[in-house]
Amino acid sequence: MRVAYREEPCRTALNRVKGMPFRWSLNPYTGCAHRCTFCYVRAFEARADRPSDDRYGRSIRVKVNVAEVLRRELARKTWRREAVTIGAATDPYQPAEARFRVTRACIVELAASRTPFSLITRGPLVLRDVDLLTEAARSVAVSVHVSLPTLDRRVWRATEPGTAPPGRRLDVVRRLSDAGLDVAVALAPILPGITDDPARLAATARAARGAGARAVWAELLHLGPGIREHFLAELAREWPEELGRYERLYADRDYLPAETRRAARDAVRRAAAGVSARPRPAIAQLPQPLQLSLAI
Fold first, then answer.
1. Which of 83, 234, 257, 282 is least surrounded, with the fewest CB atoms within 10 Å of its CB?
2. Cα(38)–Cα(50) distance, rounded to whole angstroms?
3. How far apart are CA 160 and CA 195, in angstroms?
């Protein structure tokens, strides 16, 4: 698939987030060449009247000035150095990053301002920035969350067509951990009837821990408007026998019931807890800068 890159300046870099376990997000790109069939960003694209079907991922908007804008925002007196999550909407290490290097530039700015941050990615290109990440981790909290929904190569090819294979992502976890970085693995999303077999979930969780993941977390598929149409069309093509199940499960909801989601998360957590994580070296910490106070 040919991808067109549009270099577009942005007005803001940091986004305030609600309803998530973090308050601030940063996305150096809009659109993602990974083209995962279940990607919830398709819903945002649909609302913005941009393609969310098979055309999604063919046009990537590059925020070419995002690091400069970020520097100004981090320098504001009102900024309290709250944790920032990079890649909550689009992968910061999708193929475009090899050329444009805007994610790397943002990491430089976050580290310089001593702002803690985390990354969410499926991209092995994150290994290019191990030098920056380990240096930043000497003064602020840094974590990398590698998305790995399954080890099943057929499922991977059908649902994550533009991503690195599962084994390659486990290698990424291993190498990040060996560099001393805090790494977690996300088994997300879990697909009912396709990747929710307890034995397979446990195998993925154990493999993640064995590769060095400090934590393993999971979430079931979200199927809201804008995502539902494309995902169900792909499901009908790849797993037609499952289509009826999904139409029933998600007939009047975007998420499965809370108790169902909780049970899946708990099962993954128990499986991961039964395996000791691969040891990782400690990163030497820099002393915190002194804060001087004036006596009046």
1. 282
2. 17
3. 13
- CA trace torsion 146, 95, 234, 159 (10° rounding): -30
Q: Residue 261 — φ and ψ, nearest 5°?
A: -65, -40
Which residue did the predictor score with more confidence, 154 or 18?
Answer: 154
Write the DSSP assignment of 176-214 as a string of letters.
HHHTT-EEEEEEEEE-TTTT--HHHHHHHHHHHHHHT-S
Nearest Cα neighbor of 175 from 148, 215, 138, 211 is: 211
How many angstroms separate the first and last alpha carbons of the chain?
A: 66
Q: What is the DSSP letter of 154?
A: H
Residues 6+ apart with CB under 8 A from 181: 130, 133, 134, 137, 142, 143, 144, 280, 283
Cis peptide before 161 (omega within 30 of 0): no
pLDDT exceeds cutoff 90 at 46: no
Residue 55, pLDDT score: 65
Q: Which is it for strands 59-62 and 4-7: parallel, antiparallel or unpaired?
A: parallel
